[in-house]
Amino acid sequence: MTNQNRQWILARRPVGEIKDGDLVFRNDPIPTPGRGEVVVKTEWLSLDPTNRLWMSDIPQYMPPVALGAPMRGIFCGTVIKSASDSIAEGAVVMGLGTWSDYAVTPAAMVSVVPEIPGVPRKDVFGQLFLVGPTAYFGLLDIGAPKIGETLVVSGAAGAVGSITGQLGRAWGCKTVGIAGGKDKCAALTRDYGFDHAIDYKSENVAARLKQICPEGVDIYFDNVGGETLNTLLMQMNLFGRIVQCGMISVYDADGAGAAPSNYPMILMQRLKVQGFIVTDYAARYPESFRALAKLRLEGKMNWQYHDIVGLENADNAVRMLFKGQNTGKLIVKVADPA
Amino acid sequence: MTNQNRQWILARRPVGEIKDGDLVFRNDPIPTPGRGEVVVKTEWLSLDPTNRLWMSDIPQYMPPVALGAPMRGIFCGTVIKSASDSIAEGAVVMGLGTWSDYAVTPAAMVSVVPEIPGVPRKDVFGQLFLVGPTAYFGLLDIGAPKIGETLVVSGAAGAVGSITGQLGRAWGCKTVGIAGGKDKCAALTRDYGFDHAIDYKSENVAARLKQICPEGVDIYFDNVGGETLNTLLMQMNLFGRIVQCGMISVYDADGAGAAPSNYPMILMQRLKVQGFIVTDYAARYPESFRALAKLRLEGKMNWQYHDIVGLENADNAVRMLFKGQNTGKLIVKVADPA
Prior knowledge:
By secondary structure, chain A is of the alpha/beta class. The first copy, chain A, folds into two domains: about 5-115 and about 305-335, Quinone Oxidoreductase, Chain A, domain 1 (Alpha-Beta Complex); about 130-280, NAD(P)-binding Rossmann-like Domain (Rossmann fold), CATH 3.40.50. Helix content of chain A is about 30%, strand content about 25%. The first copy, chain A, is built from eleven helices and 15 strands. In chain A, the strands form three sheets. In chain A, strands 3, 4, 5, 6, 7, 14 and 15 form a seven-stranded mixed β-sheet that branches. In chain A, helix 3 crosses helix 4 (about 160-170) and helix 3 (about 130-145) crosses helix 10 (about 285-295). Strand 13 (about 270-275) of chain A pairs antiparallel with strand 13 (about 270-275) of chain B, so a sheet runs across the interface.
């Protein structure tokens, strides 16, 4: 079969953890683009916590993936067929596609990968594209950090969390990272410049925070939700800001554990809690690209990958995110560039 | 006993509803002011939901009232003794005092009642002083209303809620008020200009909101918390704002029912939720006084009182707030001006 296009299809909405059979791996013909669409030969696939959300049908920020459709993913590759006026064949693009060797997607869902001097294409896609702006705009626009303030980041060893911590440091904050396990916590202070690390698996987060941050917390950048969020609500200073970036602890749980009993502290401490999705900031991406590239080239921005090889491994790999098994940005190499 | 100073003393922290004996009524000597303090002969006492919070020892925005101390209250009266350089004897002041015939309080906790042309002193104290700025700054600064947006207010027949609705209308919003009972809901549309009223006691709030606001809700001004907040979280439009002004439904419950299970909608809909206390805006009160007085003099701002006569009735009267029994600003006439 020369016309091979392996794809992961969402066969069933996961209940709790993703299980075998929720996604099925299938061979389909290489698609032809409809009007305004492009077909992209996938080079890399990014695996992200939000993928789990898209598999569910709980209320969310874009339509869930339809049952029987290819799984939606953030990807990068070369346009091999274009029926769009805006993107030509041969263009290297990144954006929203599917978990496929050859993905068909509206041209409006992708953009040409910009050339950024000194930054390899893998980093432009894997770190600068969505991960970087998520950390950058969430912290800058919602967190509004001031020099000398205390920033706590959960999911701190993850792709977004590790960049958030380094941005907080660059902007003059004291930074505290929360992650699960000794190795990740070691990485927080060693690789990502956090002033302190808290291991939520072996330490009492509330007690450690009181010890490390007797001055209280000004900004909480929340990637996890659930119990950690509830704990932080009790530690926030007057007029503190909670950047509600993600709630990975509740995506698998279909909403259970999502209700923070300390919610009234929002009133008592006059907190601002604000949710955001990085695509809200699409018009300003170049600003974050420039800032992050500058820090990177100055040696002030570290990032890492957890590399997976082969589209066939995407299903098992995405589950690592919810078990805290990846270290660094989880990315799947699907094929060499076209 | 010429030296009579009747006072309500917090004898016991209420568990659930305020009960007889939580507050005790006692005769004490008229106090003498310490350095920087004034003694005020109370004319009016304002009864407010936040009083219940001050009686408890849950974490809150100022220290709880100490057991054995006079109950804290928002009051208005004449300074009969001053040991302060900033406030003279004879000044008519309003601010934080106690539930006493003669209250001793730091001069910094009170301010001279401003003369506002055309607005009687009772209104300056009862409506413009704290109620008005709460509605005004909460809606303006956090709600950030735009013409044509939809504003939902809970506790809408209450002192803050009724002004909030009228400000929303003045600023070009569609206004929906939620209150308990037929009479209050009739008042919402008849007296306070709300476009629609929802009776949470006899109607399904979610279903009625979907019917009245198929366009969704842009601003939710929350005075009640609890189940109504949880319902509204599911109705908010993208980038909606929740003004977290009060949570009267949970003050009596010592935190139970305060956890909104729909919290993740803050992320999904990119909501901003912000708590505030009116005193955060003290420096800007004159702005709200001017705005509200202007609307009042133009006949565009209605308000009402629920008048109680006699300090001895304050204990029973404050309980009305939590049973939804007051209609309009609940205020106690303690004595004629000194």
